[in-house]
Write the structure tokens for this entry.
Amino acid sequence: MLERSRLLAFIGNVSITSKEACWEWRGHKSRPDGYGVFRSDGKKCYSHRLSYELFVGSIPDGMFVLHACDNPGCVNPAHLFIGTAADNATDKTLKGRARGAHSGSAHHNATLTEEQALAIKRMVCGGVKSSEAAATFGVSRSIVKDIKSGRTWRHLPP
């Protein structure tokens, strides 16, 4: 348990606007948009885990503290819940944060639409040379080969 001075230091790093809203961590973070980090008894701990322990109860060994609000900087105990590693992975996938969640034209590096990538796939699988398909769509041969092999755009039908 934190002594009074540490508890006050913790609360002093929290911005609370209402009981329902996210309680934003204003102290040190793991990265600018990341988890809050708090030093307690000479050890670093994540602020959302400490908030859960302070306001809800102990965290069983091996368990994660997940955010219902999907805001890593939030320490509102009403937004936090316990889960397993599998729960955490499922939560991440359902909220679109899993690796590959932004695939196809939603990916930040995409230069093609789904329709264009599918057209390329059909062309090269139908016998058109990769260089011709690349020239048609203004992309490199390696992009065309990656589409054909399924290395990229693998969510498209065969």
Notes: Residues 104-149 form one domain. The CA atoms of residues 83 and 120 lie 43 Å apart.
